[in-house]
Amino acid sequence: MAYLALPGMAAYNASKAGVEHFANALRLEVAHLGVDVGSAHMSWIDTPLVRESKADLATVREILEAMPGPLGKTTSVEQCGRAFVEGIEGRKRQVNCPGWTGLLRWLKPLLTSRFGEARTRRTTPGTLPRMDAEVAALGRSMSARTEELEKR
Questions:
Q1: What are the helix and strand counts (H, E) for the chain?
Q2: What is the SS3 assignment for 28-93?
Q3: Does some domain include residue 5?
Q4: Are 142 and 53 spatial neighbours (Cβ–Cβ below 8 Å)?
Q5: Domain membership flag for residue 132
Q6: What is the reported pTM?
Q7: Is 3 among the domain residues?
Q8: Helix (H, G, I), strand (E, B) or coil at 135
């Protein structure tokens, strides 16, 4: 989701933000042709990727369980599919699924402030190296290795 960045997911976060800005620019470029362009903003979708991450990585489970309110909950693929269809049929600028994710768009200035990032800044130094170690133990790659970053 382009509204909220999470440590350990820098490339994923950047791709979502890039797609949002691409959609915004494209919307302006083709509006005079009567074409509408929208972007989709989903929370955690109950896909194999999310299920496997939760099953294989204790740190992912910890992070999701520690998120306030609905932020750590998954949404069904079917619910997201319905939201996509409704968004396309309604020619919406943003499709938010579940609906509460749209609130994050308006809270983004607060969430990306020092105040909004304070809790994450406290937990990341302990969580991210553990997540990297879990991912490496599985023979996978998720983010730049913390050790490499610390050497710089």
A1: 7, 4
A2: HHHHHHCCCCCEEEECEECCHHHHHHHHHCHHHHHHHHHCCHHHHCEECHHHHHHHHHHHHHCCCC
A3: no
A4: no
A5: yes
A6: 0.79
A7: no
A8: helix
**């994710």: which residue's tokens?**
101
Pairing of β 94-97 and β 39-42? parallel
90-115, pLDDT tens digit by residue?
A: 999 999 999 999 999 999 999 999 99
Is residue 28 in some structural domain?
A: yes
Q: Show the tokens assigned to 117.
A: 């990032």
For residue 129, the cross-strand partners are none
DSSP, collapsed to helix, strand or coil, labels residue 108 as: helix
> What Rg, from alpha-carbon coordinates, does the chain have?
17
Q: How far is CA 47 from CA 64, 74, 93, 152, in A?
A: 15, 9, 25, 36
Q: State the virtual CA torsion across 89, 106, 44, 5 in degrees, nearest 10.
A: 130
